[in-house]
Every structure is written in C-alpha cells, then in structure tokens.
Amino acid sequence: MTRLLISLLFCFATAAQAADTFTFSNPPGPHAVGLQVVQQYDQSRMYKTRVDMTTGEPATGKRTRPMQMLLWYPAARGGRPVVYRDYMDTIPTEDEFGRSPAEVGRATQRAIDGYAGARRDALLREVARPMLAVRNARAESGSFPVVIYAPSLSESAMENADLCEYLASQGYVVLSSASLGPRTRAMTTDLEGLEAQAADIAYLIGYASSLPQADTARVAVVGFSWGGLANVLAAAKDDRIQAIVSLDGSVRGTREFVDGGKDAAKYVTPARVAIPMLFVGRRPMTVEELNRAEVDSRYSFMNEMKYADVHIVTLLPMKHMDFSSYSLRMSQDGRFGDYTRDDIALAHSWAMRYARHFLDAYLKKDPAGLAFLDNSPAANKAPPHMMLASARHGSGQIPPTLENFVAALAAEGFDQAIPLYAKFAAQDPAFKLGPKEIYGWGVQLARQNRPAQAREIFRLGTHLNPDAVFMIDGLAEMQAASGQTKEALGTYRRVLALDPKHTDAARYVKEHGGPSGAAL
C-alpha cells in the first residue's frame, strides 16, 4: 500500500511538472551540437543616430549596426551543455556588447522575477535545464547546409533555440541574430524595418561563407512571424537562398508589403521568389473573426507562387506565439485555453519536424524528406486531429525574370529578343524593361565589343519605344558597327525624321546616302 501511494504521488508530481515546463519532443539527430556567440559590427550600415532615440542625449559607443550572432553547428562530442538561462543571458547584449556579466545576470533575473509564485518556481526549474549545445565545442569535419533563423518582431536570436539546436544535430549550420529595427532595438513595422532584417539575413549568409563547415551553395531561411516575411524579401534579392520556411509568417497577414501595391517592395514578385516554401500556420480564424478584424483575404502571395513548390501545414491547437519555444516556456499556465502546455508543446514539436523534413528535401535533396511532405499527416504518424497539410508543386515554367530572360537570349540567340520578351510578358504582366534599362544594357554590350548582340537589344528597345530617338540612334550605330550599312542608313533616316537637328544621323546619311540621298 505504501509503495502504491508513493508511486501515485510520483505520478502526480511528474504530471504537475510536465504541465508547467516545456518539452521539445523531437529526438536529436546524429550530430553533437556546438554553440558560439559572435559579436561583430556591420560597418556598411549605420544603426545609432547622432542622438539617443530614447533620451535625446548624444549617442555613445559605436554607431554602426551591431550583429550579435548565435551560431549552432555539428560538433565533436564531449563537454558540458549550456542551460536555458545561458541563452537568456545573450539577450541583454544583442545591441550593447559592452554590458558586464553582472549587468547581464541582473537583467536575466529581472525577466524571471517578473513572475510570481508557482510560475516563477517553474521558470527557475526551466532555465536550469540543460540543452543540447556545448559552448565553443570543436566543429565536426565536413560540409553542411546553412540555415538562417529570422526571429519575430523585435525578438531575440535565441527565440527558437530548441529548433536551432535540433537542426544542427541533423547536420545543418544555423545562424541567427536579433530582430533589430533600422535605428533602435525595437523593430519598426514598415518596409524599412523589413529591409533592415532582410539585410541582416544577407550579412549572416556572408558570415557563414567564412566558416569551413558551411556550404553556402545550400542556404535556407527559417523565419517566424515578422521574420517569416523578411525572409521573403531577402529571397527576392539574394539567389543564394534556395528555400524558405515561414512559421506563421507575416507574409500571410501583412500582404501590403508583397502585393505589388503602393506600400509594397516592388522587387518582391512571385517570379523572383521562385523557390520552395513551407508555411506552417496556426489554427485558422473563422469568417466572423476575419470580418471583425477587417482582414482582407483577397490576395495571397503563396497562391501567386506558381513557379515554386509550396507546402502549407496548419497546426490546429496552436496560436501565433506558440511557434516560439521561448514564449511557450515563459507563458502563464492559463494561456492555452482548452489545451495544456504539453498539448501545445507537442504541436510545436511537430511544426519544427515539418521544417526539418522540408529542409532535408530541398537542401539535402533527400527523397525521404520530400515523401514526408507529400504524405498525409496520418501517414507520418502525426497525432489525430492535430494538423492539416497540403502540397502544390510548381508549374515547371521558367520564371519571367530579367536573369532568366538574359539566359534565354544567350541560349536561343539575341535575334530572338522580341519574341522572347513577348513570351515572358505574356506569362507575367509585371515583367517589364524600361527604356533606360534597355539602353544601358545595349551600351554595356557595345563596350564589350558585341555589336551584333547590342543591335538586337536596341532593336527590342525601339520595338517597345518606337519614338525614342536615343534608342533608334543606338540601333543605327550598332547596325553600322556590325556591318549592316544599308539598314543603318534607313534607321538614321528615322532618327532625322524625329529629330532633324541630330548631327550624327545627318553625318551618316550624308556620307552613305549619296548626292540624292539614295543608299550606295
């Protein structure tokens, strides 16, 4: 009887502890995990203004953009793993590297002391728990794909440390930096803020190229919330990024930055983000909730991504902040509604499992990863009623971008410029080349002593801009340079018809048109 009572008390105690602490249930991969904290400044970008934006007093210290990076990597085994508090201790130095260990310790303790009673006791247990990573462990030999983690609005690099450790244990080099605003620690909810975080992503990829382990020919960006929109902007600019994961990303809810409208980043188009994407989202809002929140659901960037594979997974138990393991640790017990902390932790782990298999599929070209994505959740042995999943594969068409247009000309011949342009424009009305862009292209070809190719680019330019004298003049000059004297004469006469005072055209017609103006 006594033994039974002890067993029951043990079970109750275990259940109580499980309810107030976070469990990341995905087993680690075959690699041990190392962790480094790297502090650098991006000297190419200013961060602090001349006055402190909080106090108005003159700014102190370095003014260039601070880049505190957390780096997880496959490592040799051995050493003492960090505890969760060690991750929390990286938060106070994210934009002020000079803070002392004592100041850092006090700041972390204040975050814990903000809670009371049983929740504070649970957090004290939580932050003392060992993690996977060993600080400054020796890097394992080999070459591994790179994953950049982009945190949510104003959040810290360690926001999803469990995911980052998990990916490193599966054979990835993972880097993250805090979501800093353009000029202050707080992120701004505008295009400038998004572009600041996208530039941070580019910086992290650049830093990864200095690491012997990192294979920067295989790069993906995982972003949560605001970071799950910043990674779309980063991918539109940087073709080193081969895949993106959006954890309930703002690409869905903040469409005005990617819908081509007046507030959008004009370079972000489905054709320029023609790479595989995984969107893992929270439980959907009802029609009534959408209506009350005045959410306009008529546009979806993901629906427009017809050139890429798009996978969408919906975790029915989860709310937005449940995609952050830091939030799950720090949340009050009553926040989870009809679910327990353990229920949400399990759903969170499944979300991160999908992220890992997606990265395996598209960075490691692992057939098992792609099969996992194409399976039903039941076939993947997911708990029943937890999630919905769908997969849509790209059209197979060449995305109509300038880069692909130039490549097509090189393959099919520059004399196909006009029909190829018409084909690309028919695919996507957003595909347009302006007259100055075309003219500059033709000039660059001429400078490289490629007059025949330059001629065809100017011909495209005159086709699209039939009254642009400077474009017609460029065509005439390249016709002459490529030996098409008769054609050049006719084109220069078109120049004179539009601009009778055009001296170069008049000289060419006089020299090659004969006394009566007829061609020689």
Q: What would you note in describing this structure?
A:
- Helix content is 43%, strand content 16%.
- The chain has helices spanning 2-20, 84-88, 101-113, 117-127, 161-169, 191-208, 227-237, 250-253, 287-292, 301-304, 325-330, 341-363, 367-374, 402-412, 417-427, 435-447, 451-464, 469-481, 485-498, 503-512; strands spanning 32-46, 64-75, 81-83, 130-135, 144-150, 173-177, 214-224, 241-247, 277-281, 310-315, 387-392.
- An 11-stranded mixed beta sheet has the order 3-4-1-2-6-5-7-8-9-10-11, with helices on both faces.
- Strand 7, helix 7 and strand 8 (241-247) form a beta-alpha-beta unit.
- The protein is α/β, with parallel strands linked by helices.
- The chain contains 20 helices and 11 strands.
- The termini are far apart.
- The radius of gyration is 29 Å and the shape is elongated.
- Residues 1-18 and 515-520 have low confidence and may be disordered.
